[in-house]
Amino acid sequence: MQQRIAVVSGKGGVGKSTVSACLAQQMAARSHRVLLIDCDIGLRSLDLILGVDEHVLFTWADVALGRCTLKQAVMAFGKLHLLCAPLQPERALREDMLQTLVKSCAEYDAVLIDAPAGIGFGFRTAILACNRCLIVATADPICVRSVAAASKQAARLGCADIRLLINRFDRRQALRGEFLMIDDVIDLTETQLIGIVPQDTRLFARTANGAPLKDSVVTRAIARVAARLDGENVPLDIPPAE
Question: Please, which pLDDT band fits residue 213 given cuts at 50, 70 and 90?
Answer without folding.
Answer: low
